[in-house]
Design goal:
DNA-binding; alpha+beta; three-stranded antiparallel beta sheet; homodimer
DNA sequence: GTAACTGCAAAATATTTGCATCCTT
DNA sequence: AAGGATGCAAATATTTTGCAGTTAC
């Protein structure tokens, strides 16, 4: 995993600092998206809240992570899987919010649909958030 | 329009107060969704901020309005067109956020698609937010 | 050594809660 | 009259900004 972290930082021309490493580590070890607050908690509050804000902002700009709006107003962040770059996201997968465990995950294998919009509307990006019960919570046992 | 306002309030067993009337009036006269802040401004700040919060919350619960999460984290609110009722939204249309004018509108005529999710995921609601350039901003003239 | 990053303090915003008063029915 | 709605004050929570000290390269 360390390799992966270094790679991400180098590829994005970001200096290798503890905060960034810790936050990337958290993303890589956490399955699913996290809100700012989750991240802060997940770090054991060792990193200043402000640094977290700034780091997330930077990661967003660089295309390392993407943000997922959810209906309760919390913004979730998740790692971009591949070939996103500065100002150029390829973020065309569906997101799933589980009503039971609260987790938000990227369904990388489900692409956002092409929609037939009324005349005059020019779509640039389609964001799909599905809510329901996720695979894990849907298990009959355990 | 007054009739419509009265009707909404009566149908939802809400007492007929100035704040509620004003906020409904604003929704009815405004084409598109509004964030909390827009609503406060739109009311000319005649109604207490707290009342706006509480009213929106109540309208949401009653199914008079629905909320639209957008990627910048602002929650937008829009009138439900029909047959939504308490805890029972029929809110299966697509939302469009214009990058030029910033407006968010409901595309009532475009239904949310049915998606093929991975095994185990049980969808309950599908939220689609399209961003791009809206009909109005796409006009070659004017 | 220099530019970039961090943490702290504090400002600015946004949201929630308690309570006394007022309004609707 | 009774219950609910409102406004105000204040408590909380969230996000942004400025700046001085520190770190990466």
């Amino acid at each position: 995993m360390d390799n992966e972290i270094q790679e991400i930082l180098i590829n994005n021309k970001l200096s290798n600092t503890e905060g960034r490493r810790k936050i990337l580590e958290l993303f890589l070890s956490h399955n699913g998206a996290m809100a700012h607050n989750d991240i802060e908690k997940g770090l054991g509050e060792k990193i200043d809240r402000v640094t977290v804000y700034r780091t997330l902002q930077k990661f967003l700009n660089k295309g390392i992570i993407h943000s997922i709006p959810t209906s309760d107003g919390s913004i979730q962040y998740a790692l971009c899987k591949n070939d996103c770059s500065e100002g150029h996201h390829h973020d065309d997968h569906v997101h799933f919010v589980c009503r039971q465990c609260g987790n938000t995950v990227c369904l990388d294998e489900v692409n956002t649909p092409t929609l037939d919009l009324p005349k005059g509307f020019k779509p640039r990006q389609v964001e799909v958030i599905v809510s329901g019960v996720c695979k894990d919570c849907n298990q009959p046992r355990g």
